[in-house]
Amino acid sequence: MPKPGQPLPLFGFFRRLLGQDRAFRQAIATLIGRTPDNIRLYQLAFTHSSVVRQQGEQARHQSNERLEFLGDAVLGTVVAEYLFRKYPYEQEGFLTEMRSRIVNRESLNGLALKLGLDKLVQLDATQGRSTRSRSVNGNALEALVGAVYLDQGYKAARKFVLSRLIKPFVDVKAMTQTTTNFKSKLIEWAQRHGKAIRYDLQGEARPGGVMEFTASVVLEDEVIATGMGLSKKQAEQLAAERALVALGV
Amino acid sequence: MPKPGQPLPLFGFFRRLLGQDRAFRQAIATLIGRTPDNIRLYQLAFTHSSVVRQQGEQARHQSNERLEFLGDAVLGTVVAEYLFRKYPYEQEGFLTEMRSRIVNRESLNGLALKLGLDKLVQLDATQGRSTRSRSVNGNALEALVGAVYLDQGYKAARKFVLSRLIKPFVDVKAMTQTTTNFKSKLIEWAQRHGKAIRYDLQGEARPGGVMEFTASVVLEDEVIATGMGLSKKQAEQLAAERALVALGV
């Protein structure tokens, strides 16, 4: 007989399992600000494809990649609406550019770390930390948004994105200020030196209906830099940034 | 005094205005399957930028471009969830590819015409029909989805997309079958001729966090065709299609 307070091994095993499950539930509830219903969705959101890859290519739908696809779309919609309402007089190009600044890979990876998602992500332990690309966390964040959407509905997912991601961690105003930085810096430089600057723009349709733009900065009839982007503004911005480098400004 | 039944000119003017307004309201109600609240949003959805451009660049936010940005995101989310649920065992690449087949420019333009949106779109009359690009209708459809979202909420927008666009007009099953066409056709050809075929893949991050893939079809160590796309599958698909052309199959 085990001593009092010392549980049977089997009971201990179950208790550990249940305890882990309870701790995970608790972590998710804290993270999303409400009690999850289908905890399986959240487990899936934190399952990196390396964990299931051992079981063959067929098992890959049991990783977070599908939820990431869904969450990426939900996140994009919530941020689109947020910007649409916040900037009623700005054009589509500005909204597109700002959204890509908020939800790009790097930004998502940073947000995921701020939420501590790296502690929840399940990776294949045999691979070691070195193979862990930084995008793993950002992808898990997108998958988490997808899980909240399926588990709690659009409104809850929207609330999660706005109140737990955008409002506490994203300085949208500062982002808009850096947006115009390079272009206005280049204009100032040109005015100071009495030179004529213009942008040449070309758009090309990419597969999937996405347009890709190429902007060239033309200084006194000579192309000095080009940039590409998914909006006109983004392409011009990048071209202006490169032109400033080329001019040594 | 005007004769009975012959209204005062001013009254007639207002009646015509109100009548037009009522007809537009009716058209929108029929289109979306529910009574619109904020009719202004729908008017905006059908206002092409050419109409407001005469009033200068500042007025451009009064065109449907901003709603199009929002509606594009909502549409992408609804279709993402639809595919996520319909194909529980398919991977993210498949879902991405299928979605881009459903919501690409060409497909949206076709859907817009099926709904008769071309009759509602307001263009600058002085420009004439010749300048009307085919995308005008597809863009208006996206803007309409954005208007329904803002006016009636996500659930209503989701219902509109599923019950008025996808289910009546999109043959998703047929689309999945053409998806694998080119790749499997190429494999069949290679097997028949005893040749070795493989794909080389390269991924490149584009601004905005989008990945762009380039796939090359390698036949007996020689690259015979390449294709680009926003998913691996899409890139390989296009490369396979071009390889078949190059091989004269």
TrEMBL record, chains A, B:
<comment type="function">
    <text>Digests double-stranded RNA. Involved in the processing of primary rRNA transcript to yield the immediate precursors to the large and small rRNAs (23S and 16S). Processes some mRNAs, and tRNAs when they are encoded in the rRNA operon. Processes pre-crRNA and tracrRNA of type II CRISPR loci if present in the organism.</text>
</comment>
<keyword id="KW-0378">Hydrolase</keyword>
<dbReference type="GO" id="GO:0004525">
    <property type="term" value="F:ribonuclease III activity"/>
</dbReference>
<feature type="active site">
    <location>
        <position position="142"/>
    </location>
</feature>
<dbReference type="InterPro" id="IPR000999">
    <property type="entry name" value="RNase_III_dom"/>
</dbReference>
<keyword id="KW-0963">Cytoplasm</keyword>
<keyword id="KW-0479">Metal-binding</keyword>
<comment type="subunit">
    <text>Homodimer.</text>
</comment>
<dbReference type="InterPro" id="IPR014720">
    <property type="entry name" value="dsRBD_dom"/>
</dbReference>
<protein>
    <recommendedName>
        <fullName>Ribonuclease 3</fullName>
        <ecNumber>3.1.26.3</ecNumber>
    </recommendedName>
</protein>
<feature type="active site">
    <location>
        <position position="72"/>
    </location>
</feature>
<dbReference type="Pfam" id="PF00035">
    <property type="entry name" value="dsrm"/>
</dbReference>
<dbReference type="Pfam" id="PF14622">
    <property type="entry name" value="Ribonucleas_3_3"/>
</dbReference>
<dbReference type="InterPro" id="IPR036389">
    <property type="entry name" value="RNase_III_sf"/>
</dbReference>
<feature type="binding site">
    <location>
        <position position="68"/>
    </location>
    <ligand>
        <name>Mg(2+)</name>
    </ligand>
</feature>
<feature type="domain" description="RNase III">
    <location>
        <begin position="25"/>
        <end position="153"/>
    </location>
</feature>
<keyword id="KW-0507">mRNA processing</keyword>
<feature type="domain" description="DRBM">
    <location>
        <begin position="181"/>
        <end position="249"/>
    </location>
</feature>
<keyword id="KW-0819">tRNA processing</keyword>
<keyword id="KW-0540">Nuclease</keyword>
<keyword id="KW-0694">RNA-binding</keyword>
<keyword id="KW-0460">Magnesium</keyword>
<keyword id="KW-0699">rRNA-binding</keyword>
<dbReference type="InterPro" id="IPR011907">
    <property type="entry name" value="RNase_III"/>
</dbReference>
<keyword id="KW-0698">rRNA processing</keyword>
<comment type="similarity">
    <text>Belongs to the ribonuclease III family.</text>
</comment>
<feature type="binding site">
    <location>
        <position position="139"/>
    </location>
    <ligand>
        <name>Mg(2+)</name>
    </ligand>
</feature>
<keyword id="KW-0255">Endonuclease</keyword>
<feature type="binding site">
    <location>
        <position position="142"/>
    </location>
    <ligand>
        <name>Mg(2+)</name>
    </ligand>
</feature>
